[in-house]
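Format is sequence with structure; example below:
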Amino acid sequence: MGDLSADLAPTGVLRAAINLGNPVLAHGTAAEPGGVTVDIAREVGARLGVEVELLCFDAARKSFEALTSGAADLCFLAIEPARAAEVAFTAPYVVIEGVYVVPDGSPVRSPADVDRPGVRVGVKQGSAYDLYLTRTLSHATIVRGEDGVVAFEEQGLEVAAGIRQPMTAYVAAHPGTRVVEERFMQIQQAAGTTPGRRPETIGFLRDLVEELKANGFVADALRRADQADATVAG
């Protein structure tokens, strides 16, 4: 594993970018993070025989920037065409859903109802669903902020976009809103590193993710994080 360690963790420590802004993937604080991505990062480090440094962020775009700037060696991001040139992704280890939230009285009943003139959609800037909606919505207006539901509230937007689990929790705490049950996208979460690393290193990461899906590691990690309703990718 020496060559792999030197390539993936050139500083002698595996620096893993963790997105605390996605509760399906990570939770806790920067001092004490937990969740499936934390568990996978530590397993990668154990296989390589190196220490792991967890670099915690509150948004996917910041994890992406940490990897592409060289501040991180390993990331956990949704597979998106906008990122593909700068991230060598594994296959997905978990699949989550993007859904819309609307006011109770909204005429929006399905994702197809959203892409209309005059409809404003609040998104978390740089998120997988921001990237997806940017390339797929033709008529609706995307409003980016630190959090889509905050923009939705503060600006009185017609729609907020986000991940099903936190959006469901949001609606439960905010009477007068509802989830549009049909998903607008499937978000494939994967591990990744920079594409300039050796093919053997990228292959090691890809093989390890497949192993961790097959042996129950990913499912167990999700269960421990109270995210058992998340789907382990096939």
Summary: The chain has a mean pLDDT of 96. The first strand starts at residue 13 and ends at 19. The chain is about 35% helix and 30% strand.
